[in-house]
Amino acid sequence: MPYRAWFQCINEECNRAYPLNQIIYRCEACGSLLEVRHDLERLQRRDAKAWMKLFDERYRTTEWPYGSGIWGKKEWVLPQVDNDNIVSLYEGGTNLFWAERLGKLFGLEDLWIKLCGNTHSGSFKDLGMTVLVTQVKQMIADGAPIRAVACASTGDTSAALAVYCAAAGIQSIVLLPKGKISTAQLVQPIANGALVLSLDTDFDGCMKVVQQITRDPTIYLANSMNSLRVEGQKTVGIEIVQQFDWEVPDVFIIPGGNLGNVSALGKGLIMMRDLGLISKFPRIVVAQAENANPLYCSYLKGFETFEPMQAKKTLASAIQIGDPVSVQKAIRVLKQFEGVVEQASESELADASALADKMGMFACPHTGVALAALIKLAKRGTIEPGMRVVVISTAHGLKFTDFKVQYHDRKLDFDCRFANPPIELPPDVDAVHRALDEALQRRESLHV
After folding, report:
1. Do residues 181 and 155 touch, judged by C-beta distance below 8 A?
2. What spatial distance separates the first Cα and last Cα of the chain, rounded to whole Å?
3. CATH, residue 391
4. Would you tell me the crossing angle of helices 235-243 and 48-58 to the nearest 10 degrees?
5. Where are the alpha helices (DSSP H) in 275-390?
6. Helices 346-358 and 365-380 sit at what angle, rounded to 10 degrees?
7. Which whole-number Å values give the CA distances from 219 to 125, 169, 188, 206, in the listed order?
8. Containing H/E element for 404?
9. Residue 304 confidence class, pLDDT cut points 50, 70, 90
10. What is the pLDDT of residue 225?
11. Is the dihedral of CA 99, 103, 104, 105 positive or negative?
């Protein structure tokens, strides 16, 4: 059965449509962002149970390309692309971590962490980049004169773009804010052959430049204002529901920076509802760093206004964004999902990340922002003990070892409550015994 997808203006008064193979990022009529729309009438000809069965049969198999967590749902993502042009690194299919010990600290027995960082480039960005680079490869195969794909990034987007372009044999161009990303994040696009441009500005400044250079139609834009990436990222919510045997959790908590991931999460769940796979929506919580919190400030005003800000430096560098491109889409989703926006200070996000690590995780600082929001909402009673809660962890902690070393060496600008520095000792058995006795007694007294 043929399925179709296309770009459509998000402005309901306009609604102009464009083909997916057109190089376009905003509506030519009104300037609004675009989103990918699907022919739901055709998709509805297969009933909900048949979709569930199909997705379960494909999940994590070795049948190309359907073993991918994204391409196993190809009909809902990019139905018209040829399988031979799909660029996949077996993304998605990441595990749910039952955070039993961490949850019990706050009266929650059904707390789960979706480890999106357990993927090829180490972050959730792979989910969307496989779709965008696949569409580019299809367009090139069809004769489009695309020479390179470019993005502005605070780290994870650049890594994902570089690795997928390397796999596809397409040149990538990456604009990074100089000195504002971790070494691990910087080396990924370098290693994968990207043209890396380090600009003396912040992410918002890089974003302005990349929008200018991609006016050249031979350089394709890969940032989240290009809604192709949303089609891959929307599968995270679908996959989580699938992992719970098609039951919907009560609450999702997700870090928010440029806000494309928030709108993607909502879009996937709305599609599930429209096609009959679910009958209720979860509540969505967006967590922002206090130093880059324009959505939180808008939430406090009931979303009546939104004012961009100059983001301050934050340990959660990937969400250090003061003028998010996808804010309109995100607000629209939050209004549909009883949305809540919470913020976390630098000490709160760092302590939450370290506490999670003590309970078996290795959390990136952005996941720390989401966990700090969880702690606040649980203490406030907004999240209740019997609820099933899923925190979406956006990247692997190994990308942020500098942050973790500084925390445990107590080199940050606040008291690091859960710091665990190594104990330096002479090579003497008695000294080691004394250190062991002191440490174990301290642990027992704290009931850890």
Report:
1. yes
2. 57
3. 3.40.50.1100
4. 90
5. 294-300, 327-336, 346-358, 365-380
6. 90
7. 20, 15, 21, 15
8. helix 401-408
9. very high
10. 82
11. positive
What the block records as the tokens of 1 is 């059965």
Handedness of CA 124, 125, 131, 134 (dihedral sign): negative
Q: Is residue 72 part of a domain?
A: no
- Does 361 map to a domain? yes
Residues 398-425 have pLDDT tens digits of 999 999 999 999 999 999 999 999 999 9
Q: The domain containing residue 234 runs over which residues?
A: 96-122+230-408
Confidence of residue 74 (pLDDT cuts 50, 70, 90): very high
Tokens of 139: 């367009």
d(CA 139, CA 38): 19
As to burial, measured by CB atoms within 10 angstroms (0-12 exposed, 13-18 middle, 19+ buried), residue 365 is buried
Phi and psi at residue 170, to the nearest 5°: -115, 140
Amino acid at the residue 25: Y
Task: Output the CA torsion sign for 79, 83, 87, 92.
Answer: positive
Instruction: Give the tens place of pLDDT for each residue, 104-157.
Output: 999 999 999 999 999 999 999 999 999 999 999 999 999 999 999 999 987 889
Full-model pTM: 0.94
In this structure, are residues 325 and 224 in contact, taking their beta carbons and an 8 Å threshold?
yes
Q: How many domains does the chain have?
A: 1
Residue 171 lies in a domain: no
Q: What is the pLDDT of residues 338-380, one digit of tens each?
A: 999 999 999 999 999 999 999 999 999 999 999 999 999 999 9
